[in-house]
Specification:
The protein has 14 helices and 20 strands. It is an alpha+beta fold. The chain folds into 2 domains: 298 residues, Zn peptidases (Aminopeptidase), CATH 3.40.630; 129 residues, Alpha-Beta Plaits, CATH 3.30.70. It has a 6-stranded mixed sheet, sandwiched between helices. Strands 13-15-11-16 form a 4-stranded antiparallel sheet. It has a 3-stranded antiparallel sheet with strand order 6-7-20.
Length: 483
Amino acid sequence: MSDIPTRLQPIFEQIDKNTEANIAKLATAISFKAVSGDESLRPELFKKADYIQSLLEKLNCTDIQQFDLGEEKPGLSLPPVILARLGTSPTKKTVVVYAHMDVQPASKEDGWDTEPFELFHDKENGLLIGRGSTDDTGPLLAWLNMLEAHQQLGLELPVNLIFCFESMEESGSIGLDKFIEDEAKTSGYFFKYASKIDSVAISDNYWLGTTTPALTYGLRGCNYYQIKVDGPKADLHSGVFGGCIAEPMIDLVQLLSTLVNSKGEILIPGVNEMVAPVTDAEREIYKSITYSVEEFNESSNSNTCLFDNKEDILMHRWRMPSLSVHGIENAFSGQGAKTVIPATCSGKFSIRTVPHIDSDKLDALVIDHVNKQFAKLNSPNKMVCELVHNGAYWYSDPHNSSFTAASKATELVWGQKPDLTREGGSIPITLTFEQQLKSSVVLIPCGKGNDGAHSINEKIDLENYVKGAKLLGSFLYYFSETD
């Protein structure tokens, strides 16, 4: 770590002293099965929100509120978004801190070595393993761990903070876009004590690799679709009806096969034609970034990469669209042999979008393509292809005041300058914050590229968890000094 400024030295030392207590907080937060995509677990999202609110209360935050976002569908309430403040000084800059409390599904049967909702501290390798450890519960707590160190030392923050913690990010941030838009239109909570928001800070992403820290200035968007094929009124015996009936699953598999090939090439006409061309200047950026095919293989735990050089990998991870098939509902997936013909089935897939893909045009191209392919099957079954949810891509200036401050903080804490990267994942709310709050957004990752977010054995290195709190605190100090 570089020479630590005198004002930050005691904060860093206090964060170190709190390590065991901060691990315990992560263990509690991870214990909630806050899976937003599973309706049966919806109560867990409310319980986790209450726990996070209790932590904010202990930090002496003010105006803490859980806002009701309405219903996802009749009888199913959306979990709340938590807003809270720390400081209302008119002479200080105001920073919005965004994070999400929900997580992806996980079970031991998926291949986890440990129980996913029980934090496992691998002391030998310095790892904290559990669902949400890096996406996004660990980074959320890193912000609060930094604040606790200030509180214990009786130190005042150099900026005003507004916390915005949601519970539906993994399911498309349902309800949050409209909430923020309404707040901006009415000069509500976000602008109650400040005429403007100076920056929005998000730590919901990761380093590109495992050795060099990064700052992220671009994200792909995500349009998520469903193809549903309906056939007979009930599941049927394949020995009685096989070969005599049009099977929905067979129709669905054929339709999915027309979307993308095994080389990752999107087969839907018109999609690739919308992508912004790569410039020579942009190509040069990729050459300077620290990354390798070996690091990519490590992060995927395989040797199945489609490319043999880092430039092509990064291009297709960051600035090229991709289409992924995610699963099939109503397909038999249990152990053993079940000779059933499903009466109905749904295939789910998504397209990661990039500049300059128009979301509405993309939807039209996808649905038209699937409809035409289904017509070719001459099937008596019924089919519908529809958009489930979408989120726009985001692209920012990596040299503005927010990124400059974050770069200084990264160099201080990690002893090296960060790579300036884009990312293949999506954080739909990023663009909403930027447009509605008329503020710059900076993405400051805490975790590493091999953390396994959305995968089995998700982890965050203990070092990253601890230094993450130091990094985020340093960012606030450096940002407070910018023009």
